[in-house]
Write the structure tokens for this entry.
Amino acid sequence: MTEKLTTGVMRTTPREYIITVPAVWSEKAQALTRSCAEQAGMGSAESLQIISEPKAAATYALGSMDCSDVAVGDTFVVCDAGGGTVDLISYTVIGKDPILRLGEAAPGSGQLCGSTFLNRIFAQFMEDKFSNNPGFDDEALADAILDFKHGLKRSFHGQGDKNYSILVPGLSGDGIRRGRLRLTREDIIGIFDPVVTEVITLIVNQIKSTRTTVKLVLLVGGFGTNPYLRERIRQAVGDAVQVNVAIHGWTAVIRGALMKGITKVTANLPNIRVESLTARKYIGTQAHARYDQDEHRGLQKHADGLTGGYKVSVMQWFIKKGDRMRETIRAKFLFSWDFLVSDGLSSITMDLLCFEDPHNTGQTPQQRDGRIQAMVSEAGAIAIIFSVLFFVIFCALYFIYYVRPRRIRGGSPTTSVRTGYTGTSGGWVPGAGGGGGGGGGRQFGLGGPNIREEEGRQGGGGPNIRYAPGGPNIR
């Protein structure tokens, strides 16, 4: 950019960066990407926009379609077949006036089965064929792969009995003439089919997961323009589903990412908006619950010194895979922690955990095991941190302005203080509490000889928790 624009223009022009990532990237990978981009001078981690590649591609490809060909209720599957990954996402049209409004029809999916795997299979084909040829070396292999990448990989259609050829300078033997190796249609199909079959499986499964009639499969990305891949997909999905290649399919991802960024600047320019998303995994944390002999059969229980009964450590899922969500609305859920005053805790840190349920069984683990992963690592930790100092300050301020006399417990007056927390995928921020409304309230009562915590009643936005401090224990 500095070569096209003056240094002064570059210095005075505000810039924002939008990073596209494959759909299969985890939150940990995205957090590390943010951290690296921040260190590279691309802006603060909070200001950087990250968008999945299939979503960016869909934003451009569907936004470029003629709205007269689209009806409310139509469902589309967008397949971004690139070099490393193949990512899919599906949308249903929920409105088209004044702009095209979409909702995700099913959780997106993806896999490492892009066109670079064709290069690897072709390289193995060449090594098997010429490993004993004295003229075959790394340079000859590199020349052959380069010719394959810019020729057959892009144009192969698999029709007819036409023979194909690959540049193999310096090699001689059967099938080689004037420095080119002759390949049959079956040879090329044998190279393509292992990868094409995986792509078709992804598309068919995505169509099934929408649980509705799909009108169109839209192909974007470099590999998506290959005629053989497109024809094989048409055969797999049947005549009832159209299979088209998007305009500017090679650059659909970057064009869609720019459209997404421009939306933040002006709401009048874009002609498409994604209004609802589908949760791609279960998200929650591990917490203690009262032991139930039927529900927790087979799980290890522990004595609960606060209740005199038993407790068990189990998963609590705040978000379930397949839940409908809005990007602009934060998910709210309850969190509570029991501890003794004598423990002297100053803060609590917990991992936000996820379970992908790759086979969509709907069955979640009761306890954390190898199938459950932390959303991010320490490099970009999404932790739930409650500071005692914050509570003290907040409660003191609330006490000053909203003192409410309560009944005497254990000879000391009790005062109630309420605050709430709203849980989000990016951390925790203060929210409206009050009787459990607006994301789970907390009620602290100062008084008597015992300290108890009782599960509150469900109210508006979520449950609340009541603390009545006054003695050596907290229950």
Remarks:
- The longest helix spans residues 185-210.
